[in-house]
Amino acid sequence: MKDNKLHTPMGMRDFLTGFCGAKLEIQEQLSKIFYQYGYSPIECPTMEYLEVFEGTGSVSPQQMFCTQDRDGETLVMRSDITPQAVRVAVTSFDETDYPLRFSYTGNVFRNNESDQGKLREYTHCGVELIGVNSREADAEVVALAIRSLLAAGLSDFRIDIGQVQFFEGLFEELMRFGMDTRSCQKIQNYIIQGDFISAQRQAEKYALPENLRTIFQELPILIGGKDMLSKVSSLIDNQKINASINDLLEIYNILKDHRLSCYINFDLSMLGHLDYYTGFIFRGYTHGIGFSLLGGGRYDKLISKFGKECPSVGFSIKIFDLLSAMQNLDKIRPQPRIETLVAYGREGRMRALTTADALRAQGIGVENSLIDAKLDVQIQYAKRKNMSGIIYFFDSENIRLIDLIDGQQADMTIQDLLGEDKEEAACRGQASSFRTQQSEEKEEV
Amino acid sequence: MRYLTFALPKGRLAVQTMELLNAIGITSILEENSRKLIYINEELKLKFFLSKAQDVPTYVEYGAADIGVSGKDTLLEEKRHIYEVLDLGLGICRVVVAGPPEAKEKLYNNNDLRVATKYPNIAKDFFYQKKHQTVEIIKLNGSVELGPIVGLSDVIVDIVESGSTLKANGLVVLEEIRPISAILVVNRVSMKTEYERIVDMITKLRKVVI
């Protein structure tokens, strides 16, 4: 038996200094971009009543962590943030506020299979654009996704856009040739599972005309550039299919005006793994990461479950996959380190503490030494923490400067170090900001 | 150009796959009985590695390999998130329910049937989803035929090629589950990022696969 107190639960992790810093930095960067596009942050509870997710077409209940509160209500750890954002939109806003632009960063929980290297808690960063049904809105969300990946330092990635209604059109055609709903459903499931062979075999059980057979014979045929779209529309003439293809072309053209169309490809075989998508959907990929980095789409019916009709579109970025992609490209900036250790004898404390603050005000990382020990122990400590220097205060005047890079030590006075002016300026700075505070208070009185 | 990485299952299937690849102009230097695990074709920027058959879908799902060859039995058992793009027509066999002839009756009116298998997911899918029968699954790692003989289980779910092993142990096929063959699988992201090269390969292979 493993000793549980020493382990994190399966699929959940601790994030330590380096990685955690990089994670916070990229989250901050993304929030900033979202904000610049007019999306304001929201934060929702980590747990929700089961009903928020139930029947939305979000993650299946088997994949959720459930528990009960003391009133017997079923609570789940959120498995997806979109239904929460929708709840917020319905309960706290009305039509006059539309379009709503929300952004969020939060952890989601999925009770994934064991031993498959899959996480059960991961961070999603995303946006929802609620209250508009237009290709402009679709394109805006894709543009934002692209801008996010660019900001993370990625350049070699692609965004595939698709339309779930393509399949509705395809099934209409198949049913014209005698296929029943059950077979269509089977084909759809095979395609979601990526099993093109079984999809083709299922289709071949029916006497389909040449054009429809071609679609299934060359199933990756539904992935590609603009020429793929024209090839498919030349093969089938169906209203829904034509509408889907036109939708995608329009989104593509708007993204061209955003000057971002070079990242776009099309995938008509894309069906959301979440059932709430009703129209356009998209995913982002890059080399070296076996899974999509981000995904999203239009979910016009989800809100109606909460009692309102309202078109919406959104996406979320999987932060861990994004960080792995950045790591592969060496795009994770090392976290700034603490430069200086300030240590002191009893006589030097006041000057040491004020000097440390003055240095911090200049943007330098300074650690106050809490080691009550001889100077050589301080040096060992600072070296271990990879700092570049120590300032030791004997008293309020005399200091020793130890450069840990070249090993030189020099005794001097504090004025020698900071220069008379700077030190005074630092003191003045502190004093004046204090004074302003006081004077403001007076004014209020 | 980036390397495209192939994961091949050790053994006969790897050799047969290489023959197919040779036929479409992808020559490689896969040596039989060598202990080397990775081979590189610099000219075409291809890498090949051999792995345990059951692990191929895992390598492909995570993108450690872009392309792989895997038996349909392994794919059904592992349920990995990958594309299955072409039936290579190799390694043809069947998954069946087998047992002593007298076990046939138990298959239809029994709710405490014990099933020994290397494929618990395939067995569950067959009994629970298709036959709506509750059974007890016992996972074994090999020589599954022993199950009914030593009284560990009533029947087995296993792959059968000629049926000679079953016969030698006094077992018969009681029910067919499905035919099996080797499938060309592709990572979901590689399919997109390396679309041209992969589709070109699939198109060429489609012509040489009978």
Describe the structure using short key phrases.
heterodimer; A: 445 residues; alpha+beta; BirA Bifunctional Protein, domain 2; Rossmann fold; 2 domains; nine-stranded mixed beta sheet; 17 strands; 41% helix; elongated; disordered C terminus; B: 210 residues; alpha/beta; D-Maltodextrin-Binding Protein, domain 2; five-stranded mixed beta sheet; 8 helices; 11 strands; 30% helix
Give the helix/strand layout.
The complex is a heterodimer of chains A (445) and B (210).
Chain A: H1 17-36, E1 40-41, E2 47-49, E3 66-68, E4 74-77, H2 82-92, E5 100-109, E6 121-130, H3 135-151, E7 157-163, H4 165-176, H5 181-193, H6 196-204, H7 210-217, E8 223-224, H8 226-235, H9 239-257, E9 264-267, E10 280-286, E11 294-298, E12 312-318, H10 319-328, E13 340-344, H11 349-361, E14 366-368, H12 375-384, E15 389-393, E16 398-403, E17 409-413, H13 414-418, H14 420-444
Parallel strand pairs in A: 1-5, 7-9, 13-14, 13-15
Antiparallel strand pairs in A: 2-4, 3-4, 5-6, 6-12, 7-10, 8-9, 10-11, 11-12, 15-16, 16-17
Helix pairs in contact in A: 1-3, 3-9, 4-9, 5-6, 11-14
Chain B: E1 4-9, H1 12-23, E2 38-41, E3 46-51, H2 56-61, E4 67-71, H3 72-78, E5 83-87, E6 93-99, E7 113-117, H4 120-130, E8 135-139, H5 146-150, E9 155-160, H6 164-168, E10 172-180, E11 182-186, H7 190-193, H8 195-208
Parallel strand pairs in B: 1-3, 1-4, 7-8, 7-9
Antiparallel strand pairs in B: 2-3, 4-11, 5-11, 6-9, 6-10
Quick gist of this model?
Chain A has 445 residues and is α+β, with helices and mostly antiparallel strands. Chain A has 14 helices and 17 strands.
